[in-house]
């Protein structure tokens, strides 16, 4: 097949590489425009663009993929199919109609669950036992098209957003090759999604990482894992931000329920225990503002924290 590949972040790259290594022909890559990045705000290419240029593939970077000029450019390429994964723009029906086999989207959830921008993180945040990857015949709505194929994975007890990201990105290449093969053979049977079962998840803002200590310890621990590595879960102590990278939930202790949530119950040796709204969180890896990430023992050797201290919102934001 003659393929136009549409994608932007590093999550899309393994799939692009799988297509480049296959019998199919990637005739063009479409990705988001270059953007300033980092402290120096130097203009940076997307990971997909970098991969495309390394392989000598023409790159298109429309500001608006629905513009008439871009659609005419795609028509001139005469692709058999467009493969879309984390591209970052909504595609118009005119563009969806360009390829002979339409546009196939690869989505990191078991649709119709977790339509939208952050399906990987929410699978961890909600404590799901399984998730997966779906190939979908694209329609004009947000992840509403017919399901073509799925692959399912079970989440590890200590799964993070980052580890699940890596696992799912490695599954997508084989799945899209299987889907394209079956489309060519005419053996694939698209299955309409049940809209009544659909859930939508928006892009996660940095502010979502702030820990609400009145929540139960299990929810906070999932927040820590789900937002690792970005934007990370955090709290404040002594007026400084404290990122929490790893934590465990301890069995419920009745004594923890008589103190305010966010109260330090123990801070000695390698043990840092904090009361939640229900249960106790044991913090095992953390990072104080301006410092490196470290384990609890190293942190407690360099920072004076004692039983009864409080963690919570930044003083400027507290009531």
Give a brief outline of the structure.
The chain has helices at 13-20, 47-54, 68-77, 93-96, 119-125, 161-185, 217-226, 296-302, and strands at 2-7, 25-30, 35-37, 42-44, 59-60, 81-85, 103-107, 115-116, 130-137, 147-154, 200-201, 233-237, 240-250, 264-268, 271-275, 280-288, 294-295.
Draw up the topology in text.
Layout (H helix, E strand, L loop, with lengths): L1 E6 L5 H8 L4 E6 L4 E3 L4 E3 L2 H8 L4 E2 L7 H10 L3 E5 L7 H4 L6 E5 L7 E2 L2 H7 L4 E8 L9 E8 L6 H25 L14 E2 L15 H10 L6 E5 L2 E11 L13 E5 L2 E5 L4 E9 L5 E2 H7 L17
Parallel strand pairs: 1-2, 1-6, 2-5, 6-7, 8-11
Antiparallel strand pairs: 3-4, 7-9, 9-10, 12-13, 13-16, 14-15, 15-16, 16-17
Which sequence of SSEs, written as H and E, runs from N to C? EHEEEHEHEHEEHEEHEHEEEEEEH
Rounded to an integer in angstroms, the radius of gyration calculated over CA atoms is 23 Å
| Integer average pLDDT | 94
Largest sheet: 7 strands, mixed
Percentage of residues assigned to helices: 10-25%
Strand tally is 17
Beta-strand residue percentage: 25-35%
Measured distance between first and last alpha carbons: 61 Å
Strand order of the largest sheet: 5-2-1-6-7-9-10
What's the tally of helices? 8
Q: Regions with pLDDT < 50 over 5+ consecutive residues? A: none
Shape: elongated
């Amino acid at each position: 097949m003659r393929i136009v590949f549409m994608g932007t972040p590093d999550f899309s790259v393994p799939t692009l590489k799988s297509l480049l290594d296959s019998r199919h022909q990637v005739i063009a890559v479409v990705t988001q425009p270059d953007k300033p990045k980092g402290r120096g705000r130097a203009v940076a290419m997307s990971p997909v663009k970098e991969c495309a240029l390394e392989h000598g593939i023409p790159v298109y970077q429309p500001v608006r993929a629905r513009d008439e000029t871009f659609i005419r450019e795609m028509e001139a390429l005469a692709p058999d199919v467009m493969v879309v994964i984390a591209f970052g723009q909504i595609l118009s029906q005119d563009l969806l109609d360009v390829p002979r086999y339409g546009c196939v989207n690869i989505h990191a959830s078991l649709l119709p669950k977790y339509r939208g921008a952050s399906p990987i993180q929410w699978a961890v945040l909600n404590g799901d036992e399984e998730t997966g990857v779906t190939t979908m015949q694209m329609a004009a709505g947000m992840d509403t098209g017919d399901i073509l194929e799925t692959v399912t994975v079970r989440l590890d007890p200590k799964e993070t957003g980052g580890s699940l990201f890596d696992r799912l990105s490695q599954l997508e290449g084989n799945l899209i090759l299987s889907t394209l093969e079956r489309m060519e053979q005419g053996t694939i049977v698209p299955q309409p999604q049940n809209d009544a079962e659909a859930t939508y998840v928006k892009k996660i803002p940095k502010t979502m990482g702030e820990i609400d200590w009145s929540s139960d310890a299990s929810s906070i621990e999932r927040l820590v894992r789900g937002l690792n590595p970005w934007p990370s879960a955090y709290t404040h102590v002594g007026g400084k931000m404290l990122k929490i990278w790893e934590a465990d939930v301890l069995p419920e202790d009745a004594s923890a329920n008589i103190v305010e949530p966010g109260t330090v119950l123990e801070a000695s040796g390698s043990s840092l225990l904090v009361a939640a709204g229900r249960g106790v969180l044991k913090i095992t890896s953390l990072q104080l503002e301006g410092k490196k990430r470290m384990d609890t023992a190293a942190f407690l050797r360099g920072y004076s924290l004692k039983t009864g201290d409080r963690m919570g919102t930044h003083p400027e934001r507290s009531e």
